Amino acid sequence: MSIQQYVTEEFVGKNRELRKIQDDIFKSIKESWNEKLGYVPLKPMALITVCNPKSNIIESIGFSEPNDILNNRYGALLAGQLNNGTKSIIISDDGNVSRTLIINSPTSTSMYNRSNFGVNGPGMRIRIGSNISGSPVLRTDFTLNDPFLAAPESNYINITQGGWLTGSQTVVTNGLLSNVTTSGVIGECGLFGVWIENSATPQHTFMMSHDIAGASFSSGQNVNVTYTWSIT
């Protein structure tokens, strides 16, 4: 039995506390990845659960595979963070426009620094798409392959503040899209970082992770997307 079949049979159609279900699914995915690869890759695992808003019954589940990737922007930001002193990097935003980010600067307010991430609304956000084209994920991706066109499915989803679970050495972020207006299949999702210039506007959005994850949804349902990093 594949991990997708197991998760579907075990959790779809049941009304259980969502946080417990997420923990159980992530545990199963980690075990599957470890069995398949011999290790658990240091990348975020994406989990999509589609629920009936009245009964809270899970009606569809999708999650990422180990070959889904953190992209070049994440690598550049991480390299900048680990740099000794101030670092200037150029990466493309979700419109494929090159932006200069200043990292670890005690004085610069040009973009990414200790005062300009998570101020006045920026932070991490999630977006879903159909991937109807069937395109693969690439490290050079700057946005989704096929974003949904109708709101609210087309919108960026604000997430809860990331939580560090000491016992499981895990970082969790979560985003909820309530009462979708159309029906379809979520074929992809992405995790994006949002930064601002000079503690004001404009804002710039950068894709950090691109994942293929299939889950069907219908009008009126709630779509919950969770990204989890396992450090162990």
Provide the fold topology.
Elements: H1 3-11, H2 18-37, E1 45-51, E2 58-63, E3 69-70, H3 72-81, E4 87-92, E5 98-103, E6 123-129, E7 157-158, E8 163-165, E9 170-177, E10 184-196, E11 203-217, E12 222-230
Antiparallel strand pairs: 1-2, 1-12, 3-11, 4-5, 6-7, 6-10, 8-9, 9-12, 10-11
What descriptive keywords fit this protein?
232 residues, alpha+beta, 36% strand, five-stranded antiparallel sheet, 12 strands
Commentary on this structure:
This protein has one domain (3-230). It has three helices and twelve strands. It has helices at 3-11, 18-37, 72-81, and strands at residues 45-51, 58-63, 69-70, 87-92, 98-103, 123-129, 157-158, 163-165, 170-177, 184-196, 203-217, 222-230. The strands form three sheets. A five-stranded antiparallel β-sheet has the order 2-1-12-9-8, covered by helices on one side. A five-stranded antiparallel β-sheet has the order 3-11-10-6-7. A two-stranded antiparallel ribbon has the order 4-5. A hairpin with a 6-residue loop joins strand 1 and strand 2. The longest helix is centred in the first third of the chain and has 20 residues, at 18-37. It starts with a helix and ends with a strand.
Please tell me the total number of domains. 1
Largest sheet: 5 strands, antiparallel
Strand content: 35-45%
Counted by DSSP, the helix tally is: 3
Give the strand order, joined by hyphens, for the main sheet.
2-1-12-9-8
Radius of gyration: 18 Å
Instruction: Report the mean per-residue pLDDT as an integer.
Output: 75
Overall shape: globular
Helix-strand sequence:
HHEEEHEEEEEEEEE
SS-based class? alpha+beta
Q: Please give the alpha-carbon distance between the first and last residues.
A: 26 Å
**Oligomeric status of the shown chains?**
single chain
- Unreliable stretches covering 5 or more consecutive residues: 110-120
